[in-house]
Specification:
The complex is a heterodimer of chains A (370) and B (276). Chain A has 370 residues and is an alpha+beta fold. Chain A contains 14 helices and 13 strands. In chain B, the strands form two sheets. Chain B has a five-stranded mixed sheet with strand order 5-4-3-6-7. The chains are: A alpha+beta (370), B alpha/beta (276).
Chain lengths: 370, 276
């Protein structure tokens, strides 16, 4: 009987909300920037399931409950203080929610980027009574977000390499603010700040148990940063929702030290850098790594055992210009082979490394030692 | 020089250096921020010749590649800015290598709606001279042709950042405002003061409904989470007064007035309690 009463309450609430929404929709005026057409009807498919917004059945495990509902004060939101028959809500959904949660309205108004679902109706994501999930959510965060964000769902579902952040703690809300934010894509902070909030330790392992780089330590100790890193844009190279490529890279990049030259392997780098820098055997403009007009990038890469970018460059940060690394791990025990690179005003040289001293000069070509 | 004065001098010098030095990675390889850059006259896609820089307060130049997704996104933004900033002292040019067929470049420019001159970089001479290294990238030079901003494309907040850099070059926003765009404030969720405010609002509602015991509980929970809000203390005082407990109510009103001496509810509440 009690259960029947709760179901009736839920149905009444849902009908009440919808009826009120229909009545108010025409009068509603958009108050937020970049607003979608104002309506109080929930659009999230999960919130449309009958009973989704009503109280949980008796005996259900409750993870969060709305304080007024928990206290039995139905009339804070509804017309009557009667759990079995509380009547319609007193005002349109968001107006009602913001009458207590006004700081959220304030945030949505002030922040540049707003979540249309939140602007449209709080009950797109929240059950105003109680929930099996934290924050009164109508489903677990990931299911809830992906129920609308089909493009991201596809990436997540088909990813060969997944991002641990999606399945830990607050899931999507680890990085996104579902109400409003000051960064595009509703990111809580710039990608760099977000990524470093986790990747600031050497304890994180990939799916094969390999330790991931402590990015904070690396960046603190290496003064020359790759342009996307300096621009706080990790997402220029990494797809944080999942990827077909190792290390969540957005495009292929050779994981190995040696690889025959194939532009497809370097798609990631060529996303920003001009492939002609590696393809033209002679140039005086496309790279400063040249001896006279002999393109030394071309020389290093165009071999059967061509050196990939990682052979000489640290991708995130280095201590030398052009992100040239101090040394590379070599052999099964990871012995560090030093590059011994020195920059000169018109060129540079490497010595006691993969080869004996080889010098280059941009202005006058240096004859290689026999 | 006394140590304290010396220390002050060093601090001042350090602060000045921090303000003047560009953040790492924020310049072309061969042209640093504040350096005067060359102003070559170059052939254009539209025909004729055009200088890289002019006399505008902000000379915006964009290196791009046709057929590259990032370039397309960047050019779409630049085309929007051109309209948004029409009439302001901003001069726009786009720069493309002569290694691409003119038709391909023309199609790209038309597709994104770019209307500024497109300079053809013969033999990638300007690209090499500045040390561009990547595409797309936006440079901004002032009227004296000093490089004042360098901005490679970013997947996130590119439009906001480029707009702010132009506005800063025009003197329309301050360094602080620019920094706020470059390093936006974190949009963190629920903090204790936020939850405290919610309990305050709940207490207020329950008080209006004359559910005094529950209102009292909500007000106390609010204060337990954040005791710095005068309104929560005065609400507590009002509830206690309504329960006939003027002794404790007066103490709550005093705490409210200590935080905000103009708190109306506390001022009125004290008057009402005074005679009781």
């Amino acid at each position: 009987m009690k259960h029947a009463g709760l179901v009736l309450t839920a149905v009444t609430l849902f009908i009440g909300v919808s009826a009120l929404a229909r009545g108010k929709a025409k009068r509603a005026t958009p108050t937020h920037k970049k607003s979608a057409a104002p309506t109080y009807r929930p659009s999230n498919p999960l919130s449309k399931v009958p009973g989704a917004l009503g109280p949980l059945p008796a005996g259900a495990q409750v993870a969060s409950a709305h304080a007024p509902f928990e206290a039995g004060d139905c009339s804070i939101c509804h017309q009557r203080d009667d759990k079995k028959n509380p009547g319609p809500i007193n005002m349109p959904v968001n107006e009602l929610c913001f009458s207590c949660h006004d700081e959220l309205q304030d945030q949505i108004n002030k922040r540049e980027y707003k979540h249309p679902a939140a602007q449209q109706s709080c009950v797109n994501c929240h059950d105003p009574h109680d929930s099996r999930y934290p924050k009164l959510l109508i489903a677990d965060t990931k299911t809830l977000c992906l129920s609308c964000h089909a493009d991201i769902k596809k990436i997540v579902d088909t990813a060969k390499v997944s991002h641990g952040a999606l399945d830990t703690e607050k899931s999507c809300a680890n990085c996104h603010n579902p109400h409003a934010a000051n960064v595009e894509k509703l990111l809580i902070e710039m990608p760099f700040d977000l990524c470093l909030s986790c990747h600031d330790t050497g304890d994180i392992e990939d799916h094969d148990g390999k330790k991931l780089t402590d990015m904070k330590k690396l960046l603190d100790t290496h003064k020359v940063w790759h342009a996307p890193v300096a621009a706080k844009d990790c997402s220029a190279c990494h797809q944080p929702h999942g990827s077909a490529n190792f290390r969540l890279l957005v495009l292929p990049y050779p994981a190995k030290f040696y690889s025959p030259y194939d532009p497809k392997n370097y798609a990631l780098c060529f996303n920003c850098h001009d492939d002609q820098m590696l393809a033209d055997p002679r140039t005086t403009t496309l790279t400063s790594f040249r001896n006279g007009d002999l393109n030394l990038h071309y020389v290093h890469v165009h071999q059967e055992r061509g050196r990939t970018c990682r052979a000489c460059h640290d991708i995130h940060a280095a201590n030398q210009l052009h992100l040239i690394r101090d040394g590379v791990p070599y052999g099964p025990k990871g012995w560090i082979l030093k590059l011994h690179y020195t920059k000169t005003p018109t060129g540079g040289y490497c010595t006691r490394t993969c080869h004996q001293k080889h010098e280059y000069n941009n202005t006058v070509s240096v004859e290689p030692k026999k | 020089m006394r140590p304290i004065r010396r220390m002050f001098g060093w601090s001042l010098a350090l602060a000045a250096a921090l303000v003047l030095l560009p953040p790492r990675g924020e310049a072309f390889a061969n042209a640093k921020i504040r350096e005067v850059i060359d102003n070559p006259e170059m052939p254009t896609l539209q025909g004729g010749r055009h200088k890289l820089l002019g006399e505008a307060k902000a000379n915006v130049f964009v290196f791009f590649r046709p057929g590259q997704a990032f370039s397309r996104s960047a050019l779409i933004q630049i085309a929007r800015f051109q309209k948004e900033m029409a009439g302001e002292s901003v001069r726009w040019v786009a720069i493309v290598s002569d290694s691409y067929p003119a038709q391909q470049v023309e199609d790209e420019v038309q597709a994104v709606g770019l209307t500024c001159p497109v300079l053809i970089d013969r033999g990638d001479a300007l690209y090499g001279k500045l040390g561009v290294d990547l595409h797309p990238v936006v440079g901004i030079a002032d009227a004296q042709h000093r490089l004042v901003a360098y901005q490679p494309f970013t997947e996130i907040n590119f439009a906001d950042v480029v707009r702010a850099r132009i506005r800063f070059a025009l003197g329309e926003i301050s360094r602080t405002q620019l920094e706020e765009v470059l390093h936006p404030r974190a949009a963190t969720q629920s903090s204790d003061p936020q939850v405290a405010h919610r309990y305050y609002k709940l207490g207020q509602m329950l008080f209006k409904l004359h559910h005094l015991n529950k209102a009292l509980e909500a007000a106390k929970r609010s204060i337990a989470l954040d005791n710095t809000q005068a309104a929560s203390h005065s609400l507590l005082g009002a509830i206690l007064a309504a329960q006939g407990n003027c002794g404790e109510a007066l103490a709550a009103f005093d705490r409210a007035l200590a935080l905000d001496k103009k708190d109306a509810q506390a001022v009125e509440g004290k008057k009402d309690c005074a005679g009781k």
